[in-house]
TrEMBL record:
Keywords from the UniProt entry: Membrane, Transmembrane, Transmembrane helix
Full protein name: Multidrug DMT transporter permease
Entry's Gene Ontology cellular component terms: membrane
Membership in a protein family: Belongs to the EamA transporter family.
SUPFAM superfamilies: Multidrug resistance efflux transporter EmrE
Residues in EamA domain copies: 29-156, 170-302
Protein transport keyword on record: no
Source species: Caballeronia fortuita
Length: 307
């Protein structure tokens, strides 16, 4: 009995260290993994249709997680409500966000334009957070969010890729934006801490259950199995499907949802830089100034004067 306070202090210290890492190293790692997903996914879509590509990706993710479950034996959700919450988040992220993003890229939208549209998420979160999760969004944060939006748009304009797109691809991208915004608000209000292995397994299973039948019904499911496709799938399964999504949900639970969402303002410029390395797309000098505006806006939006 005398050791209980010491054990409790150890647990509190461990929790505090985890929260500190999620607010420092977590955002940087998430940004790199998430931003690289745009050019890498576009590369993979040259070898398979979008829903087929996603179904394969989800199936591989489920296979990896089942193997991890066999070794780790993680704790499963304790009640039907927890299962339902995981399923809803899985649908919003895997089916709506990833599914509609891949369909949009296949339909012809530029990767940088897609990155910009889905990175409007902080604006939606800033508008909806007070109603859904009770967060107040002050003037300072609104100014930071608007600066971030202007800077992100400036990067795209400087690259000369922001031009009129067909309505269909743009609507698909907006649907993806709604999906990821809904997932963050839902997770913040109703989500509960779950083992990341089991939560990811449930969510990718939901993605596979929805995407595989639609691929069989509406697509030619031929796949060109090349080393490039295999490398692309490996990255998307490990980097995007397992690590990045787990980080996103963990950071959402650890901090204010509007602050976590403002990370997405970094995505368009980061995706533009990574597209240079993966796709050979050149970033003009003027875009670096716009990127500085975006970074400044995010810093203003996420700065906590109490710390």
């Amino acid at each position: 009995m005398a050791q209980a306070p010491h054990i409790e202090r150890q647990e509190d210290s461990s929790t505090q260290r985890e929260r500190r890492w999620l607010t420092t190293g977590g955002p940087i790692l998430f940004l790199l993994l998430w931003s690289a997903g745009f050019p890498i996914a576009k590369t993979g879509l040259h070898y398979a249709s979008p829903l087929t590509f996603l179904a394969i990706r989800f199936a591989l993710s489920v296979g990896v997680l089942l193997a991890v479950c066999a070794v780790k034996r993680p704790q499963w959700p304790r009640n039907a409500r927890a299962w339902l919450h995981l399923g809803v988040v899985g649908f919003l992220v895997q089916v709506m966000y990833f599914g509609l993003s891949y369909l949009s890229m296949t339909a012809g939208i530029a990767t940088s334009v897609l990155a910009l549209i889905v990175s409007l998420q902080p604006i939606l979160v800033g508008v909806l957070a007070p109603q859904f999760v009770g967060e107040r969004i002050g003037v300072r944060r609104w100014i930071g969010l608007l600066l971030g939006l202007a800077g992100a748009a400036g990067v795209i304009v400087a690259r000369g890729t922001l031009h009129a797109e067909a309505l269909g691809p743009v609507l698909l991208a907006i649907g993806a934006l709604i999906g990821i915004t809904g997932a963050m608000l839902y997770e913040k209000r109703l989500g509960t801490a779950q083992d990341p292995v089991t939560s990811n397994l449930v969510q990718y299973s939901v993605g596979f259950v929805f995407c595989a039948p639609m691929a069989l019904l509406f697509e030619h499911t031929q796949v060109q199995w090349t080393p490039t496709l295999i490398a692309t799938l490996a990255y998307l399964v490990i980097g995007n499907s397992l690590i990045a999504i787990t980080l996103l949900l963990a950071m959402t639970r650890a901090g204010k949802v509007s602050q976590v969402a403002s990370l997405f303002f970094f995505v368009p410029p980061a995706a533009a830089v990574l597209s240079y390395f993966f796709l050979g797309e050149v970033l003009p000098a003027a875009a670096w100034w716009a990127m500085g505006v975006a970074v400044s806006g995010v810093a203003i939006a996420t700065w906590n004067p109490r710390k």
